[in-house]
Amino acid sequence: MRVLGIETTCDETAAAIVELNADGGGTILSNEVLSQIAQHAAFGGVVPEIAARAHVEAIDGLIDVALAKAGLELADLDGIAAAAGPGLIGGVLVGLTTAKALALVTRKPLMAVNHLEAHALTARLTDNVPFPYLLLLMSGGHTQLLAVRGVGDYVRLGTTVDDAIGEAFDKTAKMLGLGYPGGPSVEREAWRGDATRFALPRPMTGRPNPDFSLSGLKTAVRLEAERIKPLTPTDVADLCASFQAAVVDVIIDRTRAGLRAFRQVADRPTALVAAGGVASNGAIRRALTRFAGETGVKLVIPAPELCTDNGAMVAWAGIERLGLGLTDDLLVAARPRWPLDTQAEPSLNGKA
Ligand code: KG4
Ligand code: ZN
Q1: Which residues surround the ion ligand 2 when the cut-off is CB under 5 Å?
Q2: What is the pLDDT of residues 117-136, one digit of tens each?
Q3: Distance, CA of 161 to CA of 179 (rounded, Å)
Q4: CA angle 293, 317, 250 (to 5 degrees)
Q5: Which one of 26, 144, 264, 285 has the largest count of C-beta atoms within 10 Å of its C-beta?
Q6: What's the CATH fold of domain 2-125+305-323?
């Protein structure tokens, strides 16, 4: 089974082709990602209208390249998948409409995939991880701990009450005059900084519910920066290192609470899986590796390029859904908001 996956929910235009292996995992035949960072950089964040237009201009060519690199034609595919949300609606419409058009002309099944589900299932593409597992999803828009019990069967154990972790990285970077997106630039600065110089808060740590709060930490960074300004390059590096160290502590404490909460909704997790753009952070990856060693849980973190937004994860989620007969008709709608756990109360920030 081979599926084309299209991703256009934020600021990456992506198209990929993934094949299902006999052992149940997947092989990525091509994985094209075109970042729009340069177009948004001057604005310090993603501008929805610019994103939508850039997706329109890039998507057709990108799909051609993905097909060519896989050595396939549209007729060789078994289905077409696109992320149908959550995300910026203009961009989502571009990808979903493209997928609908391709499905219509080729008469192949269409899979309207939840972008968060695509992040959630990537570890099955790369490592064939069996259900159930604990998922730590950390992106620019979402920060959640979820029990993944099956395709379409997610229990949200915890979420952020304010900012997402990626958002906290992005806002901290902006505050300190660093480039967009913030995560990679904060990580780069943190490398040469002193993580012990500023005593920053670790919000929510110690609480039994595996929820997150990041806005107080971000504010603490701002207050420290205002106290010592003007900032030298060393100050910036030390603030980044101290911020990142606080985030790492928060993530480990909250994941520990998540493991405990998991036992109430499912059997022992087969693995702890980290996903989303923030999971490409080296310090966070190392801390999770240490934590997994201590607790004896198997850790699976997809390669950094499969943690940030990509088409392969959408193609894989499409393969999983197609295998279960979960296809969509051409009337399926794009969804700006689309929680994975539909039973969970809306989070306080209104995003999940
Ligand atoms: O999953 P993703 O690519 O897009 C969304 O669905 O949001 O995640 C993007 C987020 C951004 O907030 C970005 O700053 C963050 O992931 N990010 C990182 C790193 N690389 C990307 N955060 C921390 N460290 C990184 N190395
Ligand atoms: Zn994402």
Answers
A1: 139, 309
A2: 999 999 999 999 999 999 99
A3: 26
A4: 35
A5: 144
A6: Nucleotidyltransferase; domain 5 (3.30.420)
